[in-house]
Predict the structure.
Amino acid sequence: MITVLLADDEHLIRGALAALLALEDDITVVAQAGTGDAALELARAHRPDVAVLDLQMPGLDGLAVAERLRTVAPGCASVIVTGHARAGALKHALSVGVLGFVSKTVSARHLAQIIRTVHAGRRYIEPDIAADAIDAGASPLTPREAELLAYAEEGAPVAEIATRTSLSAGTVHDHLSAAAEKLGAENAQAAARIARAQGWL
């Protein structure tokens, strides 16, 4: 039996997915979380085989959770599910050991097969997302710069981004300034627009 942790801040989606996965004979959902921080705590408690993580969640996002799971639950394979697939996010995901990366349009039946695939130690990247990542080319941004630009793109002020990422305001400002300089932008919001257009966010 493959044990699964589901983490998504949308309760309806999370509950529906749990119900559909429960129909699979070899998969059981052992825990559900609405935030990244809760997902980590539940992973410590349940030691799931696979964690299915929403990319965007309050507090720690799916990528941050996947990175920390390597220490918290080393045997747990991570699958990132997102409604906003980005080439930059895929590259970051691969760098932190994520084995699965799919859009939220995936069917529950297909997701079940992907869970089996990553549980077996194999990688599954949705073909369209992989193609977009190749087309986007190499990003000049570090994973941290891309992460912070994504928050800035939402209009979050430096203080809020610092709180959400557990960084100091000075560190956030320095990363955003560096990103803007690399992209020749006048501020973080403009840099985010450029990076988005290039497929780096």
Notes: The chain is about 55% helix and 15% strand. Residues 143-198 form a domain with the Arc Repressor Mutant, subunit A fold (CATH 1.10.10.10).
